[in-house]
Amino acid sequence: MKKKTTPKDKTTSEVGFALGKENYRLMAIGFGIIVLGFILMIGGGSDDPNVFNPEIFSFRRITLAPLLLLFGFLFEIYAILKKPKKDA
C-alpha cells in the first residue's frame, strides 16, 4: 500500500541549495567580470606627487572599467534571479 504524500511532505523532501548549479556558475562568471573591471581601473598614478600624469584620465579607467563593472553587477543580479532548472 502506497503512502499518500501531502504538500507538507513534498516540501520537506526537496530541501537543498537555494540556487542551482547553473546559477553558481553564472555568479562566478559575473564575479570574474567585476574583478576584471577593478583590475582595468588600477594604475595611472605618479610616483612623484609634484608631477601630473594625464594617464589617470585614460579611456580605459574613465569609461571602459566602470562600464565593465556595471555589466558585471547586472550580470550578478541576473545570475541570482534566474530560476534554477528542476532536475528530474
Notes on the structure:
With 88 residues, the chain is mainly alpha-helical. It has one domain. The protein has helices spanning 7-13, 21-41, 59-81. Helix 2 packs antiparallel against helix 3 (59-81). 2% of the residues are buried. The model has no long low-confidence stretch (mean pLDDT 84).
Brief account:
The protein is an all-alpha fold and 88 residues long. The chain has one domain (18-81).
Q: Helix/strand/pairing class, anyone?
A: mainly alpha
Please give the number of β-strands: 0
Low-confidence stretches: none
What is the count of distinct domains? 1
User: What average pLDDT do the residues reach?
Assistant: 84
Distance between the termini: 24 Å
Largest sheet: none
Order of SSEs: HHH
Number of DSSP helices?
Answer: 3
Shape: rod-shaped
Q: From the alpha-carbon coordinates, what is the Rg to the nearest angstrom?
A: 23 Å
Determine the oligomeric state from the structure: single chain
| Fraction of residues in H or I helices | 55-70%
- Percent of sequence in beta strands: under 5%
Index terms:
88 residues, mainly alpha, rod-shaped
